[in-house]
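Why do we care about 3D structure at all? Because function follows from shape, and shape follows, mostly, from sequence. That is the central idea of this module. The next example makes it concrete: a single protein chain, its amino acid sequence, and then its structure expressed as C-alpha cells.
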Amino acid sequence: MTRNQLKQMWLNLPTQTKVTKTIVVEMGKSKEFWIGYGTVQITKDGPDGFTQYKTHREFPMNYALNTKEYKSGDFTLVIK
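And the structure:
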C-alpha cells in the first residue's frame, strides 16, 4: 500500500464512541472522623469530550439525588 492509501484508510476508520454517564457515591470509611461524609463523583464521557466533577460532602446520597444530572435520568447511579 502506498502512504496515501494508508492515510485514507486511517482517516476513514469509524470514530463512534460509547457515551458513559455515571454518578458514583462513596461513603467515608473512617469510624472516628468525618462520620456521615462521603464523596460524589459525576463523570460524562462521549464524543463531546470527557468531564469529571468530584466533591466531598456530608450526606452524599442527598446531594447526588438532588443534582440536575441525576434528575435528568441519563446518568447511572453507583453506590460504593
